[in-house]
Structure to design on (444 residues):
């Protein structure tokens, strides 16, 4: 069901729109975490490390998919808010065609280069074969990953955050069940984890595209709608390309950090793998709320209702704070309990690694959430230059400091780079927001 986000009390509208998105991310992260939980519990520490070792590479492909999602959702939201339905449908069809082409290209390239990428990040010999196998199966399902993310972005652009939630719940539960069957009963180990994700994403992708097609047919338009537009693709790329670069740079930065972690051995890799999955759960939750704020911002800017954007920003921070508190309490005070989901107690070095990471990083969730909300407004307005500056400053600083601190402090030094990078980037994002860059940078 499509929904106009330009009417009604901004705080109430944003909360109602964002809550299903937040529930969606809970289920999405549950099935991401399930991969590591089941691998660690039923296939052992090396299997957990193998899944984790390929994680930064898989995040590069996810970054491109999310960049395409952001690019189309901002443009479609603005056109929907401005009631330009013919052009909006053209934007949808153009995005689907272009994203399919990108996904196919990355699938072929990724399969050819998968082994070289695992060598590049210094994957230890004892987990190399399993990590490479997991990566190849994951890459084989990129077309599903891309089109599902695009469909989700389009639903959100139309003010419908509930439909993606229903598909994600089904996909998540299906993935968890298949994980358990393939690993615990069939003993496929790392391959079972990968195939479970492949199948769950595939079914969810097909169903979401069918539903999207039906939903679009209910929006009345006049005359013939163009199926592809070079001009519209260019407009989408203005948002999507910086988003892809931003997301990809972060993933590349994480690969550099993973290279440092890989030097510490498979136990540290396993601990980091578990902790980074938990940390990603929290950050993705904040980012999802920011994506909701982006759609809200884009629709209201399309309708030229700028005061509603300011009220949405305040509501977004309030929502993120409510989410940050339980994550902080769980990760800081009960980090050991959380990590036991992934590994057995005898994995002492892995447990210590994970605890150190979570207790250093989690207090700064209250800082980074402000950055992500400000970024949501900047991105929704099309102020991509400012958005990229704030984001890349975090990445560059984090990577540089990780290498500097690694020499004297070891793995703990790597974790120390997170809070500093977040603090600097937050200051920049808030500065751009307060200076009104989201109004100056809005798309026409």
């Amino acid at each position: 069901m499509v929904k106009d986000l330009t009417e009604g009390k901004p705080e109430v509208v944003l909360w109602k729109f964002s809550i299903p998105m937040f529930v969606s991310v809970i289920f999405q992260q549950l099935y991401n975490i399930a991969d590591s939980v089941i691998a660690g519990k039923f296939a052992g520490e090396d299997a957990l490390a193998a899944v984790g070792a390929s994680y930064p590479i898989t995040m590069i492909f996810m970054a491109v998919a999310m960049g395409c999602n952001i690019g189309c959702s901002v443009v479609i939201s603005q056109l929907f808010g401005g009631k330009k339905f013919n052009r909006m449908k053209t934007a949808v069809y153009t995005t689907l065609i272009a994203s399919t082409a990108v996904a196919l290209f990355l699938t072929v390239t990724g399969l050819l280069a998968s082994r070289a990428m695992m060598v590049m990040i210094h994957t230890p010999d004892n987990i190399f074969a399993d990590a490479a196998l997991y990566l190849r199966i994951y890459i084989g399902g990129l077309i599903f990953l891309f089109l599902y993310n695009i469909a989700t972005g389009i639903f959100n652009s139309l003010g419908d955050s509930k439909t993606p939630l229903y598909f994600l719940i089904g996909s998540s539960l299906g993935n968890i069940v298949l994980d358990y069957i393939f690993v615990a009963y069939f003993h496929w180990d790392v391959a079972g984890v990968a195939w479970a994700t492949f199948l769950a994403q595939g079914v969810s992708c097909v169903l979401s595209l069918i539903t999207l097609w039906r939903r679009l047919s209910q929006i009345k338009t006049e005359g013939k709608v163009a199926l592809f537009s070079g001009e519209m693709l260019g407009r989408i790329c203005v948002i999507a390309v910086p988003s892809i670069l931003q997301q990809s740079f972060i993933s590349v930065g994480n690969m550099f950090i993973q290279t440092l972690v890989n030097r510490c051995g498979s136990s540290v890799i396993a601990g980091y793998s578990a902790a980074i999955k938990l940390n990603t759960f929290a950050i993705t939750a904040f980012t999802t709320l920011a994506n909701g704020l982006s759609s809200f911002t884009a629709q209201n800017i399309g309708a030229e209702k700028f005061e509603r954007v300011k009220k949405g920003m305040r509501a977004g921070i309030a929502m993120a704070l409510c989410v940050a508190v339980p994550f902080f309490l769980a990760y800081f005070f009960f980090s050991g309990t959380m990590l036991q989901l992934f590994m057995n107690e005898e994995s002492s070095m892995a447990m210590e690694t994970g605890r150190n990471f979570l207790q250093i990083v989690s207090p700064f969730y209250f800082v980074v959430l402000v950055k992500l909300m400000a970024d949501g407004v900047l991105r929704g307005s099309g102020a991509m230059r400012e958005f990229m500056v704030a984001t890349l400053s975090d990445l560059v600083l984090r990577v540089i400091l990780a290498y500097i601190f690694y020499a004297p402090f070891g793995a703990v030094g790597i974790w120390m780079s997170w809070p500093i990078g977040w603090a600097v980037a937050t200051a920049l994002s808030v500065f751009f927001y307060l200076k009104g860059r989201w109004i100056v940078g809005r798309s026409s």
Q: What stands out?
A: The CA atoms of residues 121 and 259 lie 5 Å apart.
